[in-house]
Amino acid sequence: LMNKKSMSVTEMRKMLGISDSRVYGLLKKKVFRTARVGQTTRIYKDSFEEWYQSQTYYNKADVHKEVIDG
Predict the structure, then answer these.
(1) CA–CA dist 39, 66 (Å, integer)
(2) Secondary structure (DSSP) of 21-59
(3) pLDDT tens for each residue of 49-61
(4) Which of 7, 20, 45, 47 fits 11 for a cystine, CB–CB 3.0-4.6 Å?
């Protein structure tokens, strides 16, 4: 994987194992920095990680295992 500074809504959804609507709910709350690229919203990874470390509700899905298994 490339070391990108941002991720897509889909990447974040998969990482947290949540629905698109829940992701967009978080985006509306402006809990992390985002950028619009055309029609696409990108989430800055550093901002996401800061938010992730400061909250206790969401847990990251085992993305690494998913990639290996399937």
Answers:
(1) 28
(2) HHHHHHHHHT-S-EEEETTEEEEEHHHHHHHHHH-SS--
(3) 999 999 999 998 8
(4) 7
